[in-house]
Protein: tRNA pseudouridine(55) synthase
Amino acid sequence: MADVVLREETDTGDRTGLPVTYDGQVVDAPVDEEKIRAVLSRFVGSIDQLPPMYSALKRDGKPLYEYARQGIELERETRRITIFSIELLSCTESGFSMEVSCSKGTYIRTLAQDIGRMLGCGAHLGALRRTRTAGFDIGQAVTLEGLEALDVAATALMPIEALLAPLPVVTIDQARAAKFMQGQKLQIETEGQTAGDATAITGPDAETILTRARVHGPDSKFLGTARCIGGWLQPDRLISFKETT
Structure:
């Protein structure tokens, strides 16, 4: 969700920057809800977006924002992004709020600026709140105060492997789990093979060719992730378990 402030553009694209003007800007250009909706619709789909100078993208090993702070403007290549949807939530004479669903790499600051220029009056990003990412929704979030209550923590905390839900599962027994946790690679079992050190692939993607997977040991214990290379399961990221005595 983003709040866009109309009639003022800034050098950073958000409210932390200094006011700037651009050729063709008409600060008092008439803007109403109908015009805003019409302009927003023009940004839906695949578009080319120019990354802002105030960004962490690097040139010659140096972030662009460092050049920007020195007053240096560098040429940048546009990047192809996708705006899946834009919904106008509310609007006033001074600005509007919108909900944007977009692809990775989208700069909402730049989107707000481009919308302002198309409206003719200029604009910058006043506030931004991410509500969804990688399959997670802000509705699943819990405040720190709420987390302090044990009964809430028990139901609100999600297992670490929830982040890896799209990856298929490889299940191995105790002996192979021990080898895996020591960084040893294991042979992957595929249909028609019964190799001694083979593993069993489970889950909806079991029949597909794997490039990366999450690995479970006995009792479905999550051990880490692995890369599947040439019929072998190569440990990638392992979970460290604290031993108890």
Q: What stands out?
A: DSSP finds six helices and 17 strands in the chain. The first strand starts at residue 2 and ends at 6.
